[in-house]
Amino acid sequence: MKKIENEDGRLITFSKRTSGIYRKVSELVTLTVSAIARLVFSQSGKPFSFGNPSIEAVANRFLGLNCQVRIMNSISSIMSCFVNWMRKWKGRRR
């Protein structure tokens, strides 16, 4: 497997694969009645998420937290770190 060099091709592949993963996760939830969270960031930093019953509930369970404010702060911190990383990565490409 290697990186898709053509940017348009990469965006199309991301869109198709993200849709496919969403369908598979939805099927898994339906078949197994599982608590599942999926979080994907596009190349531009846009988050795509899915959670059953919700992404916050699954993250709280995973982290052992019961305070929604703390998990939202954690998600915000993760997103900030990712955005900073993307900025650095884009700067290296130029």
UniProtKB/TrEMBL annotation:
Location relative to the cell: Nucleus
Span of domain MADS-box: 1-54
Highest taxon, organism lineage: Eukaryota
Pfam families from the UniProt entry: SRF-TF (PF00319)
GO terms, molecular function: DNA-binding transcription factor activity, RNA polymerase II-specific; protein dimerization activity; RNA polymerase II cis-regulatory region sequence-specific DNA binding
UniProt entry keywords in alphabetical sequence: DNA-binding, Nucleus, Transcription, Transcription regulation
PROSITE patterns, per database record: MADS_BOX_2
Main location: nucleus
This protein's GO CC annotations: nucleus
Name assigned to this protein: MADS-box domain-containing protein
Naturally occurring in which organism (per UniProt): Citrus clementina
